[in-house]
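Researcher: Next sequence.
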Amino acid sequence: MKFLSEYRDPKAAEKLAATIRQKVTRPWTIMEICGGQTHTIVKSGLEDLLPKEITLVHGPGCPVCVTPIELIDKAVAISKRPDAIFCSFGDMLRVPGSAKSLFDAKAEGADVRIVYSPLDALKLAKANPQKQVVFFAVGFETTAPANAMAVWQADHDGVENFSILVSHVLVPPAMEALLSSEQCVVQGFLAAGHVCTVMGFEEYFPIAEKYKVPIVVTGFEPLDLLEGIHMTVSQLEEGRHGVENQYTRAVRREGNRPAQKTISEVFEISPRQWRGLGEIPASGLQLRGRFQKYDANRRFPFRGEPAKESAECISGLILQGLKKPRECAAFAVKCTPENPLGAPMVSSEGACAAYYHYGRRENQSLQPELSGPARR
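Model: Next structure:
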């Protein structure tokens, strides 16, 4: 296995970029699905290495960003209950709802706590039997096994005061929704490596065949992404449309079967509303059978005002790859991480946050990022 620093070797990056330049004969538009990949692309300045014919657009690969505003409003309402402890990962706290965020609710006295695992929330429920402990279960297939295990454990231990507010979304249906749109500009996909670590990539073959589009499972380091782009461009230039795996050090075709079994035992597939994209059939997960008693949606009925998006936020167009963050008139003016109009500005995987924090360096040499120290 390579050391992490080797995936940021600037000489190797230049060589690979030169190979891509030699391969390209016409314009191509490629979408990376994962928000973590978006941050690597912008932070490392990979677009500056690519030929002008290659356009990278950023997809709906940030689970925080696509969590519907109605669910944020519901989370805020639950957190304000005097009998509730509301638990979440930190990147959900500043996501704006119609009027307030979880951070606002916490500032007003709600018991909102940042946890690092759904099992931390389960421990809190066991330690506070007089309280209703709710965990905000947000994520793609990557986080579904841990959330499923927390619910399974609560059921096994008979913990009645624990529930999860489910906002799980699935990648393949979102890809199909994008590809079937008349506005679609995507000609090739870089699939999210961590999702495929759990789920494998067998379900991508029918999509590639149906829409005649190459899909390359890709990692998260600069050289991973350059290799993934090269593999995608090679398919496009050669008129192929298959599924390939760049991220072989972590992903197997069949994925992680025990994790998949845990997911399917606790969850079932359902329609899901996506912020900025609308409802996509069979694109989410909900609790099934005996585990439905741990569904916060059922436990805490919500009759708030209809959700309202900011009229100035174009996050839906950004999540579809139709616009870049800088094309939003509010970007870095009315919309900042401290005062966001939409979720992509506050999430650690949001495209707007990536452009805000790193995009201003686009004209500088970014080789130090490629060869910098490994993240911990």
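Model: The radius of gyration is 21 Å. The longest strand covers residues 278-287.
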